[in-house]
Amino acid sequence: MTLSLTSALKPSPALSVPYLQRRRLFFILMTLPAVIYVLVIGVWPLAQGIWFSLYEYNLLKPARTHFVGLGNYIDLLSDPVTRGAFVNTVIFTVGAVTVELLLGFAIALALWRDDRFNRICLALILIPVTITPLVVGLIFRALLLSDYGLVGYYLAEFGLSDPRGLFANPSSALATLIFVDIWEWTPLVALILLAGLKALPGDILEASEVDGATALQRLEIIVIPLMLPSILLALTLRTIDAFRIFDSVYVTTGGGPGNATNTLMLHAVKQGLEFFNIGRASRDLQPDTDLHRRNRGRLHPVDPQGGQKGERAMSTRTSSRIGERAFILVMLAFFLLPFLWLASTAYKPSRDIFSIPPKLTFTPTLEQFATVFRLFDVWSLVSSSLLIAGGSVILSLLLGVPAGYALARSTSRYAIAVAYFFMAIRMVPAVAALIPFYLMMRDVGLLGSWVAVVLINAMLNSAFVTWMMFSYFRSLPKELEEAALTDGCTLFGSFWRVALPAVRSGVVASTLFCLMFSWNDFLYPMFLTRLDSKPISVALLSAYGTKDITWGTLGALAHFSTIPIVLIVLFLNRYFVQGLTKGIH
Question: Any residues with CB less than 8 A from the CB of 47 and at least 6 apart, and which?
Fold first, then answer.
């Protein structure tokens, strides 16, 4: 369709009352499927969870169910195990998020300059984010083994850790888990903050530099105040995710030793799906879905006194660039070496994997991959992962993109509230809806199939896509769509032919995020699928600790779980930055 240059001179259809009614109905129809889907798959199970929390309900003894009112919550306050889990969760969250914000901001500043070196480094630094938390737990479990772990062995040799290992010592286990979380999620914080930095107005920064402001003054007076929305977003997302930590704790310590690393989410899962105490589990899982509003930073005036420029400024810039490059290289080593170590075990002979002290040099072999193909139906596992991830992504886009467009273009006073509703749903702890959803899938006969995982993942991901696309479409000028409508295009045609192509990068970014979330999901497949429909992430857990399965075999199996997403991020990482640059503002 070609838009006429004289479109602006024609009468606007927006003046017509029937048109306004059709437009309102069109936006309602675009939003309604996503709203209904989230209400049925997400909100209804959450409401059931609140209802269950008022009952003494054991899944194995449903006939003994009886109403206890606030009794479960009173027990919560008096239960020392639950209180301990809460304290552990708070310590974990505060410790991990604080370091992630500080280190992530430093990395973002170092990568701020847009050049080829920084773009390559950003792609490599993002690798930990793409790895499923289950594999991350396996990486550090293997690294920190005190007998043949590459790091744990030397820590024990020099007396820096318990001979049983850091995870086995109650005084160091929680701190070690915090370190693991920092390794995994600091790159995501850096990515969010880097997107915020790239969105800063360049003219203000240039003017401050001309006026003689130092780098520290620009950071304090301009950068940090304008970065507050991005900082608040990173703080909110990481606080919520850290508070609901489950995967890495489950695979590394299981909440032990004793209850030293027991967290609220792990405790709730044990109550609900191991001990089948649904009422108490639902009590532990009630989420805090208050959505923090973003505060806009206030720009303070820059001191107009000019500074000395010339050779001294040039020398400062050169030294700063060298320091940035050195810091980034150190961060690259920090984030890549654990991943490369686990990957390398897939090519080690078994005798070298268990050598004491650990060997860094070895003759590569494919015997671990041969073991994987002998013990596992790899293609079935990969197919299940593809079905779950692909089905979830497609359904999320079909629901989220139209809803995001309708909410962005609607003039209703309720549109922004609905958009925040979707964002709040995405922040609900994954475990909160698991137990009621488990019962729902059992009742409709879908429990044990990959379809159940697609449905619950699509609920969370469609909420994320709706919010992302809402932000994208809001940043898109309306003039092209209005011109298309004036030229006779339909409402759907203006969306499909004009608006959607203009936000192609946003759709790609949303697709990549949803693909990563679904592919790496571990909790839902573990409880909702049966043996013949489990994805590769769950196969890794079942293989861990199994007789005749070595770390080399786990490393080989982990290749099929991590390499596809890692390659996608390496080649398409620019869309992550583009998506967050527009999607968080």
Answer: none
Backbone angles phi, psi at 122, to 5 degrees: -60, -45
Tell me the C-alpha distance between 13 and 488, whole Å.
9
Distance CA 535, CA 340 (A): 23
Spatial neighbors of 149 by CB under 8 A, at least 6 apart, are 142, 143, 165, 358
Please give the Cα distance from 432 to 523 (Å, whole number). 12
Sequence-distant (6+) residues with CB within 8 A of 414 are none
Q: Which residues contact 181 (CB under 8 A, 6 or more apart)?
A: 92, 96, 100, 242, 245, 248
DSSP of 401-462, one letter per residue? HHHHHHHHH---TTHHHHHHHHHHHHTS-TTTTHHHHHHHHHHHT-TBSHHHHHHHHHHHHH
The rounded distance, in Å, linking the Cα atoms of 117 and 390 is 33
Peptide bond into 257 cis (omega under 30): yes
Given a contact cutoff of 8 angstroms between Cβ atoms, the answer to whether 456 and 433 are in contact is: yes
Cα 393 to the center of its chain, rounded Å: 15
H or E element in which residue 574 lies: helix 551-583
What is the Cα–Cα distance from 1 to 487, expressed in whole angstroms? 10
- The per-residue pLDDT string of the chain (585 residues; one tens digit each, 9 = 90 and over) reads 444 444 444 444 545 668 788 889 999 999 999 999 999 998 998 888 778 777 776 666 666 677 777 777 777 778 888 889 999 999 999 999 999 999 999 999 999 888 889 888 988 998 998 888 888 888 898 888 888 788 888 888 888 887 778 888 888 999 999 999 999 999 999 988 998 888 787 777 777 766 677 777 788 888 888 888 889 888 988 998 898 888 888 888 888 888 899 998 888 777 655 444 444 544 444 444 443 333 333 333 334 344 444 444 455 566 677 888 899 999 999 999 998 888 888 898 888 887 888 888 888 999 889 988 988 889 999 999 999 999 999 999 999 999 999 999 998 888 999 998 998 887 777 777 787 888 889 889 999 899 999 999 999 999 989 988 998 898 888 888 888 888 888 999 999 999 999 888 889 888 988 998 899 888 889 889 887 788 988 888 777 766 656 788 888 888 888 888 888 877 877 776 666 666 555
pTM: 0.81
**Residue type at position 370:** A
Cα 447 from Cα 61, distance rounded (Å)? 19
